[in-house]
Design a protein that fits this description.
Blueprint: H1 2-11, H2 14-24, H3 29-37, H4 41-47, H5 53-67, H6 71-79, H7 82-88, H8 95-109, H9 115-120, H10 123-131, H11 137-151, H12 154-161, H13 166-176, H14 182-197, H15 199-207, H16 211-221, H17 224-240, H18 242-251, H19 255-264, H20 267-280, H21 295-307, H22 310-333
Length: about 325
């Protein structure tokens, strides 16, 4: 059976090649390995140049099957010259072809030996642009997962990710999407990871207009995980230059969400919220301690903030930061 499929891929007409590629996906891992050894990667990649969308879809499906569970085959796909063709398919008019292309990139990007080659090919810029296109949620999630795979390689973050517009695309996606969605959860998780891995990425993110506001909105309306990543990113901003970002963060109205997060967030979110509260208070002594805060204190403080207006809001916020930090500092040392 393997020999017949290989023969049809090499020498068959378009319809025969499509049938052979579809058949390949049904084979066992051992059979697929035997086909790869026979060189079928070459005709499959050649099919990606076809004007027939069905042929392209069949070839991409076969390549995904070959790559699944095999680091060696993932590497072979790149070495066989598939990458330039895959990048060209981003311009395809068929949405299904584009979705399969991204799924293929996601699969092969998990192989460590492929990451630098993919990043240096221009793929990251294309992925960044695709994030905010009219695509399906699944394709956007696959794009985020591909970017995350690539971002785990430290040497890629500064020269490729920071310069390719990924950070701006992530912030735009977070801003425009439902804050409680899985999409925002994955996007803001990737953003925090990138910002925490590179000083230049942190500076790039913090300099983008509306970034702080978007993060504050996520603290207010995001899922538990999204809130955790949002406060983590704001904390990184403030730790990098407290004098520069403290006022900016406060002006965006972070206090209600931050105070609530310090009480009912995830363990990590609570810890980071309390650390950020320490940095936001208007004094240089961060070591004062007192009793642990409770829900009643948080609710009272939030009510006072909600009742304040204009300049009174800024004054009230600063005073309440002082008061809240005094109550929270004991938790930071425990």
């Amino acid at each position: 059976m393997e020999k017949e499929v290989a023969e049809n891929l090499w020498n068959g007409n378009t319809e025969t090649q499509i049938q052979a590629a579809v058949e390949l996906r049904k084979f066992s891992r051992k059979q697929r390995h035997s086909l790869v050894e026979s060189g079928v990667m070459v005709p499959l990649i050649s099919m990606l140049h076809s004007q027939n969308y069905e042929a392209i879809e069949a070839a991409l499906g076969a390549l995904l099957s070959i790559a699944f569970g095999s680091e060696r085959n993932k590497s072979r796909i790149i070495k066989s010259g598939a990458l330039p063709v895959l990048l060209n398919l981003f311009n395809c008019q068929s949405q299904k072809v584009v979705e399969l292309t991204i799924a293929t990139l996601l699969t092969i990007s998990s192989c460590n030996s492929n990451k630098v080659a993919i990043a240096s090919s221009g793929a990251i810029q294309l992925l960044a642009q695709f994030l905010n296109s009219n695509s399906t949620t699944q394709s956007q999630l696959d794009t985020l997962a591909t970017l995350h795979n690539l971002s785990t390689c430290q040497e890629i973050i500064t020269p490729f990710i920071v310069s390719s517009g990924v950070i701006l695309s992530l912030l735009e996606l977070i801003h425009m999407s439902e804050k409680s969605s899985t999409l925002v959860e994955k996007a803001i998780g990737l953003l925090e990871h990138i910002v925490s891995s590179s000083k230049s990425a942190l500076c790039e993110a913090a300099s983008i207009g509306g970034a702080v506001r978007t993060l504050v909105e996520t603290i207010e309306d995001g899922s538990s995980q999204s809130k955790e990543h949002a406060v983590g990113t704001l904390l990184l901003f403030c730790q990098s230059c407290r004098e520069k970002y403290r006022g900016m963060i406060l002006r965006e109205g972070v206090m209600p969400g931050l105070l609530q997060l310090s009480v009912d967030g995830t363990w990590r979110a609570k810890n980071m919220a309390k650390k950020l509260l320490l940095l936001l208070r208007d004094c240089s002594n961060y070591s004062s301690t007192s009793k642990q805060t409770n829900h009643e204190v948080v609710e009272r403080i939030m009510e006072e903030i909600d009742d304040a207006e204009g300049e009174e809001l800024a004054e009230t916020t600063l005073r309440l930061v002082e008061e809240m930090v005094a109550k929270l500092s004991t938790n930071l040392s425990s």
